[in-house]
Every structure is written in structure tokens, then in C-alpha cells.
Amino acid sequence: MRSINFWVDGKPLESTTQRWGAVYNPATGEQTAQTPFATPAEVETVIASATEASKKWGRMSISRRTEVLFAFRHLVFAHREELAALVTAEHGKTLDDALGEVSRGLENIEYACGLASHLKGGFTSQVSTGIDVHSLRQPVGVVAGITPFNFPVMVPMWMTANAIACGNAMILKPSEKDPSASMRIAELLSEAGLPDGVFNVLHGDAEIVGTLLEHPGVGAISFVGSTPIAKSIYERGTSAGKRVQALGGAKNHMLVLPDADIGVAADAAVSAAYGSAGERCMAISVIVAVGAVADPLIDAIAERMAALRVGAGDEEGTEMGPLISKIHRDKVASYVEGAAAEGAKVCVDGSNLEVAAANKGGFFFGPSLIDNVRPGMKVYDDEIFGPVLSVVRVDTFDEGVDVINSNRYGNGVAIFTRDGGAARQFTVDVTCGMVGVNVPIPVPVASYSFGGWKDSLFGDTHMYGPAGIEFFTRSKVVTTRWPDPSSSEVNLGFPKTR
Ligand code: NAD
Asked: What Rg value do the Cα atoms of the chain yield, rounded?
């Protein structure tokens, strides 16, 4: 059995642990590797290495840091197919989808390459007589990133690119379910000239994360994962005095108005609900159909679903791959199985899916469509994180917005309409952090920042882009006077500026 290593001090480190997690090929169900869960001593080793490296890296010139990031960008681009293949082998998504995530990760590196402008401070001359003020942004020191299974390249890149650009040393704790891409990222960063110890990879579960959360050597925690864990990480990390951003789960709605183009809306719904088997935090999982649009829209969606090709992610022509694990597959299936008893109507049941003989042991569940779903049903209230699309029928635009705004999550949302006024009103009224107008998966480009509202994000800063620069730096303001000894005097009053 292949054992995954840690990446410490610019090289792989074999673990001495007794606790391991399993990595599967989700298309066959076979175990392909094992992930070590770091021992407390191994966590200490990584933090010590990162602490040492952070001292020098944080003081290294911006031009040198930029050079490393440019080289890294070039290497990730050159190795994009290899990275995508690693993702497909352990996550299950199609190669094309995996390439898409690598390219969205690249955007974050490209953004970070502009660190010379991102780290610019301000300067104001003569704020008081003979006194100037300037501000600067400095690295936090050692920062940790904890990432989910569903984007093994892109989400680590959301954090790593800016964290390193800002002069921090980073400890990445990727998902134990698909750890290989992180190790390849570490090799590429080394090859790009990143000094040893600036980027480290540690594997493990809740225990390791707990140590990172409480360790005084770690200054900031950037987390992406499910809501209950995001909330607990935020609470534990902040009470230990750390800066924390913790992005959680989602239930993303797509409001379809009666004037929408049915074909366009159905194409978007199918792509956004079943792409990556619904294992995207920005997947559309609920259609809110206004008035008479529901019936023709459901027919158009069902027609497209029947043509979807489900199979192994590395097979030519596959559009949707398996889920990450058997446990998760069975959990997704249980929502569809229970939907009818809750009063909903199962239009397409993914458990009827037939796969090729070679994939019989794989974690497959077919695309599913459920009508007459209402808030209060489990199938609506829970984040299913699988290829299950619900339809909630409403009579009016306002009722649709109420349904969306009453949901506990507020990650992504979309409206499909040809009415500009209604779309504009929607963007103002809706309580979600990322809104698409005729765009079903409105993941912001890297020069903006990513983040949801409500239970989809704990903390004040969004991820990557300008918010990422803010998160990974501490600001400092310097007030300067070069005194003239002839006018210097003792004055115990509070400094005045006038
Ligand atoms: P998860 O919460 O189970 O795991 C995320 C990370 O936390 C992993 O590295 C895992 O090892 C670690 N972890 C697990 N249990 C822990 C615990 N008790 N204490 C501390 N750390 C723990 O999430 P997942 O199943 O890997 O990923 C899917 C979830 O991530 C979904 O809910 C999805 O919506 C969410 N997600 C959100 C975003 C976003 O941007 N908001 C993006 C991608 C995924």
C-alpha cells in the first residue's frame, strides 16, 4: 500500500504514526493509498520548521517573492494535466472538471504575483505640523490552511498563493481523503525556488487540527469545509487568540422567473447541479420556480438528465463521476429514499443508475430530481452535497426571495430572467455573498474575493483576492517626526493635530 508523506523543510517526511486514513479510487472503490495522521511530535516539527522559515521569508524582498510566484505559476500551468489526473484519481471528478479547478487555482497564483501593488501602504504628509504618517502591511508569521476534499488543488491555492506572497510560512492540512495533489503542489513550490519550510503539508484529522488551533506558534487559520466544523474552528481558534476565517457549507438556490428562457435555465441547472456530482460548495441544489415556469422547466431538466453520461472520471466522454466515499454515497441516497415520505415527489431517482462492470464497486449515485420540496423537509434543510436537485414551487418573486433569505446558508445564489429590473432588485435584496445573474455558479474571479453570508462563513474576511491579502497581513501605522531641537519642549497634554 502506498503511504503518503508529509512535506516539511522542503522535503518529504515519512510518518511514524500508528493512525492512518484510507484513500480510494472512487470509480472502483479500491483503496489506493493511506494517509498518515500526524503525531503530536510531528506537528511540533512542522510548526518549528515553519516558524524558522517565516522569519527570513517575511523579510525577503518583494521582487524575490514575486519571482518565486511567477515560477510557481509557470510550473502549475505546465503540470496542469498531471495535477488534474491526481485529483480525478482520488476525488473521482472528471478530468475536464479537474482541469477547470486547476485553472481557477492558477488565477489565485496570478493574482498573488501582483503582490508589489497589493502590499502598497499609504502615506500622508503633514498630518500635523512636521508630522507624517504611513501604513504598512506585514506578514502574520506562521499560518495554517485546512481544506476540504472537494477541491484538492483550487481551495489550497485560494489560501496558499496569498499567504506566501504576503511573506508568511504556510502549513497546509488538506483533506485526508485526497492528499496527493497537495504533495505535488509542495514539490512544484520547491522547484519554483521557495525556501525550505515556507510551505509545509501536514496530514490528519480533528486531533491535528485541534493542535494547530491551540498552538501559540500559529497566528492565523484559514478553513474551508462543512458548517459544523467551520463554526467550531472559528470558535476555538478565535478563543485561542488567532485570526480565523472559516468557510462552511451551502444550499444554493436558483430563482427562475416566468420570463426566463427555459432552455438556458435548464442547461444551467443541470450543469450546476450535477457537475462534480454535486460536490461543490457552489453547486445549485434548489430551483425556486416562480409560477407557471415549474412544469416546462422540470420537463426540460429531466430530458437533459436522461442524456448525462455517468462513469469513471478518467473515461473519455464521462460528464459526471462518482462520489467521494461509500459512506457519503449512502447518505446522499438516503435523502432521495426519504423524500417521498416527507411529501415531495421524486421525478428522477439516482439509485436506478447502471454503471459499467468495472465500476460496480465505485461510489456512484445517479443524478436525481425532486419536485414539490418545501422548507422543513430534510431534503431541503440539509446540505446533501451530491447530485440531487430539489424544486421548490412559489407563486411570486417576493415569495421566492423569502424562501432563499430564510435559508440558514448564504453562499451562492442565481436568478434566471430576462427582466433587468427584477434581476437588479434581486441582487440588492438577497442575503447571500455571491450572486449570479443568469450565471449559475458565480464564483468570483481572483481579483474579487470569495465568501458567503450566514452559516456559510464564520469570521469577517472573505477568501482570496483583496480580502485574502488583508487576512494574511497585519497592518501597522507609523507616525513620524524629525524634530527640530530648537522647538522641542515637554508637553503632558494629549497630542493634538491642529
Ligand atoms: P469537512 O468539514 O468534513 O472537512 C474539512 C477539513 O476539516 C478536512 O481537512 C478535515 O480533515 C477537517 N476536519 C474534519 N473533521 C474535523 C473536526 N472535527 N475538527 C477539525 N477538523 C476537521 O468537509 P469535507 O467533507 O471535506 O468537504 C465538504 C464540505 O466543505 C461541504 O460542506 C462543502 O459545502 C464545504 N465547502 C465549502 C466551501 C466554501 O467555500 N464555502 C468550499 C468547498 C467546500
From this structure: 25
Pocket test for ligand 1, best of 209, 223, 235, 449 (most atoms within 8 A of CB): 209
Q: Which of 101, 149, 285, 453 to mutate to test the pocket of ligand 1 (most atoms within 8 A of CB)?
A: 149
**Ligand 1: centre distance to CA 159 (Å):** 15
pTM for this prediction: 0.97
The single-letter DSSP state of residue 216 is T
| C-alpha grid cell, residue 293 | 415556469
Confidence tier at 485 by pLDDT (50, 70, 90): confident
Question: What's the rounded Cα separation, in Å, for the pair 69 and 192?
Answer: 7
CA distances for 172 relative to 146, 156, 224, 261, angstroms: 6, 7, 12, 44
Closest ligand 1 atom, residue 250 Cα: 34
pLDDT 10s digits, 242-269: 999 999 999 999 999 999 999 999 999 9
Active site residues: 281
Q: Is the pLDDT confidence value at 162 over 90?
A: yes
Q: pLDDT over 90 for what percent of the chain?
A: 98
CB atoms near residue 412 (< 10 Å): 30
* DSSP E strand stretches across 129-238: 131-139, 142-146, 169-173, 199-201, 220-224
Distance of CA 293 to the CA centre of its chain: 33
